[in-house]
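If your schedule permits, I should be very grateful for your opinion on a structural question. I have a record of one protein: its chain in single-letter code and its fold written as discrete structure tokens. Would you kindly read the sequence against the tokens and tell me how you understand this chain to fold? Thank you for your consideration; the sequence and its tokens are set out here.


***
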Amino acid sequence: MKSNRKSVKNPDHVSEDVKRILIVKPSSLGDIFHVFPAVARLGELFPNAQFDWLIHPAFAEALDFAPVPVARKIIFRRRELGKLTTMIPEFMELTRQLRKIPYDYVFDFQGLVRSAFFARLARGKVVGFARPREPMARWFYHRWCKVNLRLHAVRRNQLLVERFFHTGTMRTAVKMPSCPQYRESLDKKIAQLDMRPGNCLIGISPGARWESKVFPPDLFAKTIMLISEMRPDARFVVMGAPADQKTAEKIQLLAGLAPVYSLAGSTSLGELVELINRCDTVLANDSGPVHIAAAANVPVVCFYGPTNPNLTGPFGDIHTIFQRGDLNCIKCMRRKCSKAITECHNIDAAAVAAAVCKKIEEK
């Protein structure tokens, strides 16, 4: 494939003629919310542009909370593309959708060879990072920008837009809209829990994709009991995927008489976003709900072990992170670790409870 790739030494200038932009960021959940401020900046630069988004079906509902209206959700069915029986028809349909409308720009925020390849299939000028996650991805770009990889993911995404168009930082705060259809269905599910009255709601998110990111249920339970003693008006709702239901039940059992309710495995993604938006604060592992809360400006108290919160922690200065700073192996990026429970997962529950109560008082 021949490419007319150029660096951003002579970038395109901001133009009112920009009509359509395609965002390529199929996954994962937290990463999608990391892109929202950059997309908001594009919306600010081009208020009349139409935005489409290449998205994994599991995360499609997240786009209903995007800072700009998403006209078309182009579904990226990764599983079907990986099967011999469905690969060809799925590829043909995806290609048809990508080429259906010409784009002024196609922004690849994913930085993988796969995402760059599909970005290039679209009819538009492809823009990406000078140093994407997979170096070969850059061969599919028409233009690229140099961005400091040591910055937080949110800021890196913003800089890709700002440096490409030679603009300053966004002038307005990003506001995540509320969606009535999810809000109404969530109301019905909360009513079924028969929650006791209370002045504050604390979200609990004990799940994570990596085994090493999953801090023990008893840490959550101990923290909940301590918070309940300090804040008798607090209620707790456990959230997560169906795989987190057993963990939720264990936390409810270990938390004793504390008012712990569970919606783990019972909400759609859209309902989960609305639930987080109602919380006064969220106590969580390093996972997608952390970044949803940050996008909704809900303060987070979260546990980090194998990952670097400076790069992928909750964005903003209203959050508190607990991570062992006295371990040489911290931020190891290992998905599994036999020493995690006795090492990086060994956190003082009393300190965490105090931090959560402080967030509630400050809000």
Remarks:
- Residues 72 and 321 are 36 Å apart (CA to CA).
- Confidence is low (pLDDT under 50) at residues 1-12.
- The two ends are 54 Å apart (CA to CA).
- The first helix runs from residue 29 to 45.
